[in-house]
Write a structure and sequence with these properties.
Radius of gyration of chain A: 21 Å
Oligomer: heterodimer
Number of helices of chain A: 14
Number of domains of chain B: 4
CATH topology of the largest domain in chain A: Uridine Diphospho-n-acetylenolpyruvylglucosamine Reductase, domain 3
CATH topology of the largest domain in chain B: Uridine Diphospho-n-acetylenolpyruvylglucosamine Reductase, domain 3
Number of strands of chain B: 18
Helix content of chain A: 25-40%
CATH class of the largest domain in chain B: Alpha Beta
Strand content of chain A: 15-25%
Mean pLDDT of chain B: 94
Structural class of chain A: alpha+beta
Distance between the termini of chain A: 22 Å
Low-confidence stretches of chain B: none
CATH architecture of the largest domain in chain A: 2-Layer Sandwich
Structural class of chain B: alpha+beta
Strand order of the largest sheet of chain B: 15-12-14-13-17-18-16
Mean pLDDT of chain A: 97
Largest sheet of chain B: 7 strands, antiparallel
CATH architecture of the largest domain in chain B: 2-Layer Sandwich
Radius of gyration of chain B: 23 Å
Shape of chain B: globular
CATH class of the largest domain in chain A: Alpha Beta
Shape of chain A: globular
Largest sheet of chain A: 5 strands, antiparallel
Number of strands of chain A: 18
Helix content of chain B: 25-40%
Chain lengths: ~400, ~475
C-alpha cells in the first residue's frame, strides 16, 4: 500500500488532490494507536501525519497551544507540564485496550474527540479544540476557529471535524486551549457500594459546590474484589483539605472514604481513563453514553440478556464501559434495545474485524440526520476518498 | 445611514403576500399570526437598531409542530424565513427583510423538566436565559452562560449566536453548556440531536448548530447543563494606573495557575460612565479597572484573593476594594453588566466584539485609541480580560449621518486590527449583518466556501436567515 508522508501543508494539498483525481479511498494515519476505531475500511493508500510535527504556538499566559497534527501527544503533555499546565480533557490512551503500539498524536486526539475522566467537569476534546487547519477532499487547505478561546465567527467547522474520525479531511494543525495543572490531587474511595447507590453518591457529589473533577464507579471484580466508588479532587492544597472533608460529611451515609494520592491515585485514574480493566481479554468492548442516573438501569437491563457482561462507570455514571462476549453481533441488538428507551447510545469500541464489518459501530441515526451526515460528508469530500464507511456504511 | 446592504426583496414574493398570509393562517392559531403594520413594527429590528426592515409577516408558534408546519410551508413556497428569539442581537442576527416571514419562539417559554441528579434542564427555546437560572436557583443551581442581556435574551437566541458572558472564563460559552436540541429543518423534519447525555452519536451536529445564526434550522427545545453554584462568590475591584499594568496583572494571575471565575476590564471612560449610572463605588482616580471574581468557601476565597492581591501589587495596583456584602456585589456587577445601557444614556454607540490574544492587549488598546481619535470620535472599553474578548463602545450621534458612518468605519478598522493580531471578528455576539462584509478579512475563499457548502446541506436555496453571516456576493449553493 502506498503511504504518503507530506512534510508541508502544500504537499498535503497536492497529495489529496491527486488521490481525489483518481477517486481512490485513503486512510489517515497518525501514530496508528487507534486504527481499530470505527468500521473497517477498504483503502488503497494512506496519508500519514508523521511528516507534520512540532509545536507551532505555545503561550502559557494565554492558555493556548498549537501543533502540527503529527506531533506526539506525549511531547504536548511534556511541554505543558514544564509550565505547570495540561490539556483539560485528559485524553484516553487506546493502546492497552486495543493492543496497539506506536505513539499517539495530537491530531488523532482532535479527529477522534478523545477525552477522559475530566470530561465530566472540564469538557471534551471538542470543547477545548479552538482551531484547526484541514485539507478537504478538494485538496484545499481550510481553516476554522483560530487561537483565541472566544470565537463565534462563522460556522463552527472545528466541532464538526472533531469526532469525524478523518472522514471529512486530513488535519494538518490543531490548536487547543489549556488549563493550569492542579497543585494537589486527591482521590476519595468509598468501598462496597452497589451500582445504584454509587451513582447516587456521584450525583450528589457532582451536584455539590465542591467540584469533583472526575467521578467513577468500579463494581466488584473490576480491578479489585470489592466495589470502589471514586471522586477526584484537584485544587490548591488548602482547598483540597477543606473539600475532601466537606464531601465526606455530605456523603456520610455512604460510609467513610479512603484517601489515595500520588502515584496510586494517578495509576487508578489511568486505568479508568484507558479502560485497562478490559485490556488483553477477548471480549468485545462497548461505550455507552447516557444520562448519569440511567447508567445502572442500562447495565441491569443488559445483564438480563448478556449475563456474562462486565462493566464500570465513568462521568458520574453517564459513561458505561461494557465488555461482553465477542461472538455473533457482540451483543449489539441486546445492548441497543436495552438503552433505546433510556435515551442514550452505544458505540462499539473493540471487536474482531468481522464483527465490526457487520454491526453498526456508531449508533444508527434517524433518517433526516443520516441524510445531513451524508450531505456534510459530500460537502467536504465530494469524491468520497477519506475513510469511506469508517463511521457509517456508504458515507 | 445604510452602509450594510440587504438583498433586494423579491418582487414575486411581495406580490404573493396575501396568498402567503392566507397559507400561514391555515397553519397556526389566529393570534399567532401578525400581519398589521403596527404589530409587525416591533419585529423590524433587534438591538442593532440602526437597521430595520418590515417583514412580510410574523408568526409566533406555540409548539414545535407549528414551527415545523410553517417552515415546511415557507420552504415549499420559497419564502425566506428569519428566526427570532427575544430580538436582543447586537449583530443584527434577527433583523428581517421585506420578503421574509419572521418565526419567533417567544411564546414557547416553558421549562419542561429539571433533573438535578443528572444536572440537566429541558427548556423551550423562548425561555429567557435568566429564567433558567431562576428555575433552579432554589436548589443552589445555575445556568452558566450569562450574556449581559440575560434578563431578556432567549435560550434559542443564545444557541443561535453561541452567546458567552462574563463568567465563561471558567464555565465556557453556550456550546459548552448545551447537551441537546430539538431542531426543525427547512423541510419540516423534526430531529433530536443529543439529549441528557454528554456525547451525541455521529458527527457533532450539535456543535455545528450552536452558533449557526439561524441558518440551518430552528431550535425549539434544548437540554442545557445546570451547575451547582459555588458556596460563595466575591468580586474585587482592582484599580491600576495604566492599562498595560492591568493587562500584565491578568497574564500573571493566569500564569500563577489561578483561573478566577471572571476577570473584567474597564478603561477610564467606561468607569466614569458605569459609576455615574450604577454608583458601584468604582475608583475614579485610576486609568484601568479590573473586576476579578473568585468563588468558594470564605476561607478559599480569602486564600485565592491573597494570591491575586499579591500579584496585583507586583504590577502596581493602586486601589483594591473587596465586596463586603451581597448588595455591594450586586452593585459591582450591575455597573459592569449595564455598561452598554449606561453608555446609551450619554451617547449613541456601537459595540464591537472582537477577540484578541491577550498578549496583544497593550498594543491593541493603544491602536484602538488612535483609530477612534483619527475619526474624531471617543471610545469606552469594557471587555473580558481573561479571554481577550473586547467590547469597545464607539460613541457617536446617530442623528448625524456623517458621524454615524465614521463610527462604523472606526468599528470596522478595529475588527480588522483584531484579526491582524491573531484574533477574530466576533467573540460572542455573532456575525449577523454587522460583520458579514468583513468575513473575508478573517477567512479566505476556500474557508468560506467550505462553510457555505455545509450550510447548503440544510438550506440549498438560501431561505433561512439569508442576509446574514456570509457576504452577499460569491455565495455557494452546494
Amino acid at each position: 500500500m502506498t503511504i504518503h508522508t507530506p512534510t508541508t501543508e502544500a504537499q498535503a494539498c497536492a497529495v489529496v488532490a491527486s488521490v481525489a483525481a483518481n477517486g481512490t479511498p485513503v486512510t489517515i494515519r497518525g501514530g496508528g494507536t487507534r486504527t481499530g476505531l470505527g468500521r473497517p475500511t477498504q483503502v488503497v493508500s494512506t496519508i500519514s501525519s508523521a511528516g507534520l510535527t512540532g509545536i507551532t504556538l505555545y503561550e502559557p499566559s494565554e492558555m493556548v497551544i498549537g501543533a502540527r497534527a503529527g506531533t506526539p501527544l506525549a511531547e504536548i503533555q511534556r511541554t505543558l507540564a514544564d509550565r505547570g499546565q495540561m490539556l483539560p480533557f485528559e485524553p484516553m490512551d487506546h493502546r492497552a485496550l486495543l493492543g496497539t503500539e506506536g505513539e499517539p498524536t495530537i491530531g488523532a486526539v482532535a479527529a477522534g474527540n478523545i477525552s477522559g475522566p475530566r470530561r465530566i467537569n472540564a469538557g471534551a476534546a471538542r470543547d477545548s479544540l479552538i482551531g484547526i487547519r484541514l485539507i478537504n477532499g478538494r485538496g484545499e487547505a481550510i481553516k476554522s476557529g483560530g487561537r483565541v478561546m472566544k470565537n463565534v465567527t462563522g460556522l463552527d467547522l472545528v466541532k464538526l471535524v472533531s469526532g469525524a474520525h478523518g472522514t471529512l479531511g486530513f488535519l494538518t494543525e490543531v490548536t487547543f486551549r489549556v488549563l493550569p495543572a492542579p497543585e494537589c490531587v486527591v482521590t476519595l474511595v468509598w468501598p462496597g457500594l452497589a451500582d445504584e447507590a454509587a451513582v447516587a453518591l456521584l450525583s450528589a457529589a457532582l451536584g455539590s459546590p465542591f467540584e469533583p473533577m472526575a467521578a467513577a464507579h468500579l463494581p466488584a471484580g473490576i480491578g479489585a474484589d470489592q466495589a470502589r466508588t471514586l471522586l477526584r479532587l484537584e485544587n490548591f492544597a488548602s482547598s483540597i483539605a477543606y473539600r475532601a472533608d466537606a464531601l465526606g460529611e455530605l456523603l456520610s451515609q455512604y460510609g467513610r472514604p479512603e484517601r489515595i494520592e500520588g502515584a496510586a491515585s494517578q495509576e487508578l485514574w489511568h486505568s479508568v481513563r484507558d479502560a485497562r480493566f478490559f485490556a488483553g481479554s477477548h471480549e468485545a468492548v462497548w461505550r455507552l453514553s447516557l444520562a448519569p442516573t440511567k447508567g445502572p438501569r442500562a447495565t441491569a437491563a443488559i445483564m438480563q440478556a448478556l449475563p456474562q457482561a462486565r462493566w464500570f462507570y465513568d462521568w458520574g455514571g453517564g459513561l458505561v464501559w461494557l465488555a461482553v462476549p465477542a461472538d455473533e453481533d457482540a451483543g449489539a441488538a441486546a445492548i441497543r434495545t436495552a438503552i433505546r428507551s433510556l435515551g442514550g447510545h452505544a458505540t462499539l469500541v473493540r471487536a474482531p474485524h468481522a464483527v465490526r464489518a457487520v454491526v453498526p459501530v456508531f449508533e444508527p441515526l434517524a433518517e433526516p440526520l443520516m441524510r445531513v451526515t451524508a450531505g456534510i460528508k459530500n460537502s467536504f469530500d465530494p469524491a468520497g476518498i477519506f475513510e469511506p464507511g469508517r463511521m457509517y456504511a456508504g458515507i | 445611514m445604510s452602509a450594510i446592504a440587504f438583498p433586494a426583496p423579491r418582487a414575486d414574493i411581495l406580490a404573493r403576500r396575501d396568498a402567503i398570509i392566507a397559507g400561514l393562517a391555515g397553519l397556526v392559531a389566529p393570534e399567532a399570526l401578525i400581519t398589521s403594520d403596527d404589530e409587525r413594527r416591533p419585529y423590524e429590528t433587534d438591538a442593532l437598531t440602526a437597521y430595520r426592515r418590515m417583514p412580510l409577516a410574523v408568526v409566533l408558534p406555540s409548539t414545535t409542530q407549528e414551527v415545523a408546519a410553517v417552515l415546511r410551508y415557507c420552504g415549499e413556497q420559497g419564502v425566506p424565513v428569519v428566526p427570532r428569539g427575544a430580538g436582543t442581537s447586537l449583530a443584527g442576527g434577527a433583523i428581517p427583510q421585506e420578503d421574509a416571514v419572521v418565526i419567533g419562539v417567544s411564546k414557547m417559554n416553558r421549562i419542561l423538566e429539571i433533573n438535578y441528579a443528572n444536572r440537566a434542564a429541558r427548556v423551550q427555546a423562548g425561555v429567557t436565559n435568566l429564567a433558567v437560572t431562576g428555575a433552579v436557583m432554589s436548589e443552589g443551581f445555575f445556568y452558566a452562560p450569562d450574556p449581559s442581556s440575560q434578563l431578556a435574551c432567549s435560550i434559542g437566541g443564545n444557541i443561535g449566536m453561541n452567546s458567552g458572558g462574563a463568567h465563561c472564563l471558567k464555565y465556557g460559552v453556550t456550546t459548552n453548556n448545551v447537551l441537546g436540541v430539538t431542531l426543525v429543518m427547512l423541510d419540516g423534519s423534526i430531529v433530536e440531536i443529543g439529549g441528557a447525555h454528554l456525547d451525541a452519536p455521529g458527527l457533532d451536529l450539535l456543535g455545528l448548530i450552536v452558533g449557526s445564526e439561524g441558518q440551518l434550522g430552528i431550535v425549539t427545545e434544548a437540554t442545557v447543563r445546570i451547575l451547582r453554584s459555588a458556596e460563595g462568590a466575591r468580586p474585587v475591584l482592582f484599580g491600576f494606573p495604566s492599562s498595560e499594568q492591568a493587562g500584565a496583572a491578568v497574564a500573571a494571575i493566569i500564569g500563577a495557575g489561578i483561573i478566577p471565575v471572571a476577570m473584567e476590564f474597564m478603561d477610564k471612560p467606561a468607569i466614569e460612565i458605569c459609576e455615574a449610572f450604577a454608583k458601584a463605588g468604582y475608583p475614579m482616580d485610576v486609568e484601568a479597572l479590573l473586576i476579578i471574581e473568585v468563588e468558594g468557601s470564605d476561607a478559599e476565597m480569602d486564600a485565592q484573593l491573597a494570591r491575586i492581591v499579591a500579584i496585583a501589587r507586583e504590577h502596581g495596583v493602586k486601589t483594591v476594594k473587596e465586596s463586603k456584602s451581597a448588595m455591594e456585589t450586586a452593585a459591582i456587577w450591575k455597573g459592569r453588566k449595564s455598561a452598554f445601557g449606561a453608555t446609551g444614556r450619554i451617547a449613541d454607540y456601537i459595540c464591537m466584539d472582537g477577540t484578541i490574544p491577550t498578549g496583544q492587549l497593550p498594543f491593541v488598546l493603544q491602536r484602538m485609541a488612535e483609530i477612534v481619535k483619527g475619526y474624531g470620535l471617543r471610545v469606552a472599553n469594557v471587555f473580558h480580560a481573561g479571554d481577550g474578548n473586547l467590547h469597545p463602545l464607539i460613541l457617536y450621534n446617530c442623528n448625524d449621518p456623517v458621524e454615524a458612518r465614521k463610527a462604523e468605519d472606526a468599528g470596522n478598522d478595529i475588527l480588522k486590527l483584531c484579526v491582524e493580531v491573531g484574533g477574530c471578528l466576533t467573540g460572542e455576539h455573532g456575525v449577523g449583518i454587522e460583520k458579514r462584509d468583513l468575513m473575508r478579512v478573517q477567512f479566505n475563499e476556500a474557508d468560506l466556501n467550505q462553510q457555505m457548502r455545509v450550510r447548503a446541506v440544510f438550506d440549498g436555496e438560501w431561505l433561512l436567515n439569508p442576509a446574514k453571516v456570509f457576504p452577499l456576493d460569491g455565495r455557494v449553493a452546494a
